[in-house]
Amino acid sequence: MPVIGYATLSGRVLEECDDDLAGQAEVIARACQQRGMALVEVVREAPTGQGPLRVGLSDGRPGLRYALDRIAAGEARGLVVPGLRRLTRSPAELGPIVDWFTRRGARLVAVAQGLDTAEREGRIAAKVIIEVSRWERERLTEGVLWSVSTLPVPSAGACDADDGGAENLGDAAVPITFP
User: Fold this and answer.
1) Which of 20, 107, 122, 127 could form a disulfide with 116 if both were Cys (CB 3.0 to 4.6 A apart)?
2) What is the pTM of this model?
């Protein structure tokens, strides 16, 4: 089975990154050999800032986008990573990526966690990861909505004179609800 390896850089000193990439490539190659998979290539992701949480499959990660595109095109049938932390930066981001693999019947191997979606246990673990990730995204969304809902409403003095006759609600917090 042809697969792609995915290695990431953390943004440390260049020499450390080169050593880290080489180590990740070795882990990926060894895992492929042990599982009888043909390693087509190892895609390396350039270092990026941690930035804000992104829930898209590969937002800001062109190497991952490239690997997923090749898998979607049928040029490879899976992805091998040294560990799930190399695939994503947060549990909220992980679920959509794992779900992408399960929906396509593509193989995902995370060596450090012993996850292999070609195995029954790996498919069960993938379902749990997807669900926990959904919970995390909901929790994060609820936290943001709660934070916004507790913001104080500006007093009349803080508004422009041309406020269209809006009444003064004082400093009371007004809950914001979304449909």
Assistant:
1) 122
2) 0.71
Compute the half-sphere exposure of residue 73: CA atoms within 13 Å on the CB side of its CA: 8
pLDDT tens digits, 90-121: 888 899 999 999 999 999 999 999 999 999 99
Structural domains of the chain sorted by starting position, each given as residue range(s) with its CATH number in brackets:
2-146 (3.40.50.1390)
* Percent of the chain as helix, strand, coil, to the nearest 5: 45, 15, 40
Question: What is the pairing mode between strands 107-110 and 115-116?
Answer: antiparallel
Rg (CA), the chain: 22
Sheet with 107-110, edge to edge strand ranges: 38-45, 2-8, 78-81, 107-110, 115-116
Q: Which residues pair with 4 in a beta bridge?
A: 41, 79
- CA dihedral 43→44→49→55, nearest 10 degrees, is 20
Rounded CA separation 21/128 (Å): 29
